[in-house]
Amino acid sequence: MPESMKKRLGEMLVDEGIISEEQLQEAMHEQKIKGGRLEKILISQGYVTQDVIMAFVGTQLGIPHVSLTEIGEIPNDVVFSVPESIAINHILIPIVKKDKRLTVAMADPLNVFAIDDIKMMTGFDVDPAIASETEIKAMQAKYYGSAAAAAGGGGGAETGGDMQEILNSMGGAGDSLEVMEEKAEEIDISKLEAAGEDAPVVRLVNLILTEAVRSGASDIHIEPYEKNLRCRYRIDGVLHEVQSPPRSIAAAISSRLKIMSSLDIAERRLPQDGRIKIKVLGKEIDLRVSICPVQFGEKTVMRILDSSNLSLDLPKLGFEDDVLPKFEKAIVEPYGLVLVTGPTGSGKSTTLYSALHYINNPDVNISTIEDPVEYNLQGINQVNARAGIGLTFAAGLRSFLRQDPDIIMVGEIRDKETAEIAINAALTGHLVFSTLHTNDAPGAVTRMGNMGVEPFLITSTVHCVVAQRLLRRVCKDCKEVYEAPPEILEELNLKPSAGETITLTRGTGCATCSSTGYKGRMAIHEVMVLTDDFRKGVLQRKPATELKKLAREGGMQTLRECGIRKVLKGMTTVEELLRVAHADQEE
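Above: the chain's sequence. Below: its structure in token form.
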């Protein structure tokens, strides 16, 4: 509402006979003492209702007034046509979508920046309607969640943001930055630095980071192409494309992120890695930043490390009740080698951190070398590997052995040298944890053999290998049960007895899960404890298929079998299991 309108509101209410002159004077006197908006004071004193104020202001501005309580349900595709952060930041909510027009209920229908934001992000023309702030926030709590609505836009203010306002304030800077992208050899570094420090760019980058944290994303991808700039968030392991800034400011965004990461702003030909520590939505967040030159600029990927979401409780990691005791027994052994395997992003670090947390006591000395340290653990000595100055995993391990350790964790066994030092540490009375990139637990033994480690060393030290994957959980708010069709039962190798009906679950899609049907993730595990028969197989250099057969005969539950148990419990879907875990080969 413009200042002129605010100043005259009281007088117009008196002129229309809605309030008296005495009531106006009392309200203005209280406003001078306590501050605040005049209309809210009039409402709090009982001189006028909020509905009357809204209807009156709407009439004066020529903007319709809507009662959201009378509207009732709003279709999800309408509500979520505008990003949640924009809606909460500007106190608005979309209510009708028809053709290429979007009707938006707003507490301040004259907020042109909000209207421009919506136009740019949706491509729709906006018809503003006026509604009470209370009703809008109630609707936001209903569709976005009460915590988000209660924020009332505080998160956006903290990190600074209206995208269209930011872009407008940049003026013509975009054209000059476009030239910078095309003629790298002629770049004026001072201009790039100035662009990265420009307030609108700072606010735009903060807005991207805030949205990612609010969405629960684990990674942010910013990718320049010839004619557009694509921004994607990885949520629950799957990439989702979100509203992206214009292509013309790609270099400014890249420069800003380099400044935040303390990287070389002039280097645009070689990859660079850095780290950012920021506070977003009241939480301290670490960002691992990787910038890589691509054909049309620089691609940036940021891993979001939110310690507030880190769960170090082993029973909550998804281990089955009959499998968890095997792992717990392995990690309290006085010496030996425990390996966790799986692809990048499968939760290996979380499992290792949880294991260290489980055995962390004042009477043991625990040291880790990681690339990089992802989360800080109280009472544990953590070292960042820095290969550029010679601090490799192998060098760190050698140093640890002179530090009187009880327990050692090395981020990853990548080569023969690291493997041999880890095995020697295990042989000399230390408990060693590490990771490997293999598809299953038995494959870890084969992988170490391929590195050149002798079989007798493997069988003497390795006593537990855990392979794991992450599956998306079925959304609790839109979960439905259905009878499993025959083809699904055949795919899962399930044979129900006569008259038995097997039911499965799936998500139908709702506001909570952004219509995906999934919300959150859990792990499935393949825990292999080395038996005597398995060790004999390793010493005999049997192939991977034979070793897996021996492991299963020794009681190992495969990833697929663990996943099927989760499916039958209604925790995830068949489609998600088939996406993540391969079928077991029949022997």
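Confidence is low (pLDDT under 50) at residues 1-7, 146-162, 171-186.
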